[in-house]
Design goal:
This protein has helices at residues 4-39, 44-55, 61-67, 77-104, 128-141, 156-159, 201-207, 248-263, 315-320, 337-345, 360-363, and strands spanning 146-148, 153-155, 178-179, 192-194, 213-222, 233-243, 269-276, 279-288, 304-313, 329-336. The protein has 366 residues and is an alpha+beta fold. The protein has a seven-stranded mixed β-sheet with strand order 1-5-6-10-9-8-7, with helices on both faces. Strands 2-4-3 form a three-stranded antiparallel β-sheet. Helix 1 (4-39) packs parallel to helix 4. The longest helix is centred in the first third of the chain and has 36 residues, at 4-39. The N and C termini lie far apart (106 Å). The model has no long low-confidence stretch (mean pLDDT 89). The chain binds phenylalanine.
Length: 366
């Protein structure tokens, strides 16, 4: 028989033993369970939720278990505490190892790999009209034409008067002009206008007094017209050649050379008589249709597409430029850049204004 005090001693011994064993068993079980779960981890997100499950300050499994330590008798506290700390250390180490392994596999948000390519920046490209201008000026440079630049805000004199269209001449009506000034502000030069055609560069070039002339003038031009085939701002390219003994065959050869380079070897040209005040004779240039090659089809109706104007420089224009028409002669042509570009690409654009709407879905196709 145990004495009362012996009984109490024994009882407390058993209790101690029991709670110590229970804590140890619980800690071991927790460690094993954690280990099993840790093996399955594949991402940082999994890792974080595992860490929370076991170590979160409020509700972590280990945290809660450590709170139970209160039931362990004082004398055993250090031993249980040591064991609990070892388990905690084990968990923390394991989490660290998994984290760095994930990082090495480049799965980590925080891992920085300097060998990975950077974010690609979008790169733009030239607008199709700029592309066409470059191509056109290059084609003429190859046969000795020099590109010149003349004002877009021009004098009435260079736009009309010097081109054999005096004030009030009905031929002016064709160039639906924007006027800057209501009345002439200069006796000789008249009003300022937005140049309605690149022909305004002709007399300016002649006034330089350097002969012979072989120039292109490519620029913005303006007319008070807006519909599916007209934009109030568009582009023209002008060619001007002045030398001794220049005749229609030079004009025809040059136009043909351009058409074959720009549109293709298989295209033909034809000159149709026309009227311009500043050329004599004057022509309208047609090119054979790219689809039916001159036979006639739905697109062209009769086999030819109308391109633009050309002609031999009028003697009055040469005189205005200070050149003697008895000694020199020349030819000129002036065509729309957009029109040529649209014809070349076979672009079935039914509205020229689309070129200037800045809709990237259109522009990025070219
Ligand atoms: N300037 C004329 C136009 O705009 C075209 C042209 C240029 C015609 C040169 C003949 C000679 O229509």
């Amino acid at each position: 028989m145990l004495t009362k005090s012996q009984f109490w001693d024994y009882n407390s011994y058993i209790t101690k033993l029991f709670s110590l064993k229970k804590m140890k068993a619980k800690l071991e079980a927790l460690k094993k369970e954690f280990n099993d779960e840790a093996e399955k981890i594949k991402s940082l997100v999994d890792l974080e939720s595992l860490e929370n499950k076991y170590l979160s300050r409020k509700s972590g499994v280990l945290t809660l278990l450590m709170k139970e330590m209160k039931s362990v008798p004082k004398e055993e506290m250090p031993a249980v505490g040591k064991l609990a700390n070892e388990v905690k250390q084990f968990l923390t180490n394991k989490l660290e190892t998994i984290k760095s392994n994930l990082g090495n596999k480049n799965n980590s948000d925080t891992a920085f790999d300097p060998t990975l390519p950077g974010t690609e920046q979008p790169v733009g490209h030239l607008h199709m009209v700029s592309q066409a201008i470059r191509e056109i000026s290059g084609i003429f440079e190859d046969i000795g034409f020099q590109r010149e630049r003349y004002p877009e805000v021009e004098w009435d004199y260079y736009g009309f008067e010097a081109l054999n269209m005096p004030a009030g001449h009905p031929a002016r009506d064709e160039w639906e002009t924007f006027f800057i000034d209501r009345e002439p502000i200069n006796k000789k030069l008249g009003q300022r206008i937005l140049t309605p055609h690149t022909s305004s560069g002709q007399v300016r070039e002649m006034e330089k007094g350097e002969l012979p002339i072989r120039m292109t003038n490519i620029s913005k031009t303006y007319r008070r017209q807006i519909d599916a085939s007209h934009s109030p701002m568009f582009h023209q390219f002008e060619g001007l050649v002045i030398d001794k003994d220049i005749n229609i065959s030079h004009l025809k050869g040059t136009v043909e050379y351009f058409v074959k380079r720009f549109f293709g070897e298989d295209r033909e040209i034809r000159l149709r008589p026309h009227h311009f005040q500043f050329t004599e004779p004057s022509f309208e240039v047609d090119i054979s249709c790219g689809v039916c090659h001159g036979k006639g089809c739905k697109l062209c109706k009769e086999g030819w597409l109308e391109l633009a104007g050309a002609g031999m420089v009028h003697p009055n224009v040469l005189k205005a430029g200070g050149i003697d028409p008895k000694v020199y002669s020349g030819f000129a042509f002036g065509w729309g850049v957009e029109r040529c570009y649209m014809m070349k690409s076979g672009l079935n654009i039914d509205d020229i204004r689309l070129l200037y709407k800045n809709d990237l879905r259109v522009i990025n196709q070219f």
